[in-house]
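User: Fold this; tokens only.

Assistant: Input:
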Amino acid sequence: MFRNRIQQMMIGRNGPDALGHFTMFLVLVLFVISALTRNGLVYLLALVLLGYGYFRMMSKNTGKRYLENQKYLQITDRIRHFFGNGFPVRLWKIRAFWNEMIRKIRYGRADRKIYRYYKCPECRQKVRVPKGHGKIEITCPKCKGTFIRRS
């Protein structure tokens, strides 16, 4: 119900874009700096940028906001290509990496009760074999090399 109202309110509005993401990231950094230094000027600058960011997201003049975003993208083009696909994408890649690590920690233990993992001595490919079969000959699916291990 609340989500529907928010979606209905955002119809025809600009919403977040690359410049909006950068502005909100800058606001977060400035809030942290102002909390550490207790500098009122930095805090005021963060509040002004926060207001500007919300103004951009709620604006119905999408044409002007689009041009502002394009200008920002042109200015930061070299920096974004140096770091890859852009700053917000980098954050998502980092987040995806940590989510994958957490998933492996949570669910990897249950998997290890049933299977054993070995690395092929030739190509270092990880190979999964079922536990409890004694001494077995394992064939690597990548390089077709064989090695003997206890499962």
